[in-house]
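Hey L., structure's done. Input below.
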Amino acid sequence: MMRDRLNDALKEATLAKDTCATATIRLILAALKDRDIAVRSKDSQAGISDEEILGLLQTMVKQRRESIEMYEKGGREDLAEREAREIEVIQRFLPEQMDEAAIATAVEQIIASVGAAGLKEMGKVMTALRAQYAGRMDFAKASAAAKQKLS
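Output:
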């Protein structure tokens, strides 16, 4: 399903002559193809799941945010703007992101459901969060919230 959305968006961007969107979607598809090849085995020719695609997209957004920060420090506003436009394109394919209040609530629920009592169980909490909220949550913020609740 996600692959179809990406391919359709590539066709639309190409027809609309939107060079930034076309280039960004091609980058997404290339990264997706790389991941598909990496997980293939002799038994299965299936690629990665939609949840893994969402994770890939989140990683791409995170990389671009880091690049923006570096470009701004280096005085390259033109490149920072390009990265910001790429983030906008990538975010079209992500579900709406949870705000900080929703993240805090989700962290509390997961901590209660896994019965975590201290920082030693941080891994369990994060694993459960990643499984349940893939693509919808900023896990850096979730990690900070979980750390605060567990300490």
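The radius of gyration is 18 Å. DSSP finds seven helices and no strands in the chain.

-- N.
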